[in-house]
Predict the structure.
Amino acid sequence: MIELAGIRKAFGTGTRRVVLDGLSLSVAKGEFVAIRGESGIGKSTLLNLIAGLEQPDAGSVAVGGQALAALDDDGLTRLRREHIGFVFQAFHVLPYLTVGQNVALPLALLGRQGVDADRRVQAMLDAVGLAGRAGDVPGTLSGGELQRVAIARALVHAPAVVLADEPTGNLDPDSADEIVALLRDAVKAQGATAVLVTHSPRAAAAADRVLVLRRDGIHPGSAGE
């Protein structure tokens, strides 16, 4: 489902800072992969490359068999809207929309509105333990509840790929455990492929496979490494 080959990515001008160099990664359909690594090693950059938000300086990225280099900006936007769901550390829940409206955003961007869309939103809120909260505003929710909203929003349009960037980073340990278990179960229920980047050994332990990103590339690892 996700294939990166020979990726090189550097930032800056003049003497550029190389973040990723010669990285290759394959993630199978339906697999939940956790990627660990120290701060600044390039974990978020890796997710951005998979999503087509950044372009590699060398190498190739393909999602669902589609080479991202062959897509123009409109094509990349369609890929993200239709096939990718995002979960972030900072939630990115819009404060001026209700919980239900936040979750419905990916459907609205795809032109899916009406009774069927409303049912889908309610089903996702039920799945993340927020039944009856569609009309609430984000300011009344806890951090864990906000991340539940973010998970529902990421999965409401049934994406093939879910990318999660430190989704438990702003949560206490108990809430973090609940959220990563919820994310894993929701992804598996939909048959999606997921890549989770995290500092947390406890979060990584929920994955099917754990990898460690280092300066010399990506390596097999363990949750506690």
Summary: The longest helix spans residues 173-190. The radius of gyration is 17 Å. The helical segments are 43-50, 73-83, 99-109, 115-127, 143-155, 173-190, 201-204. Residues 2-220 form a domain with the Rossmann fold fold (CATH 3.40.50.300).
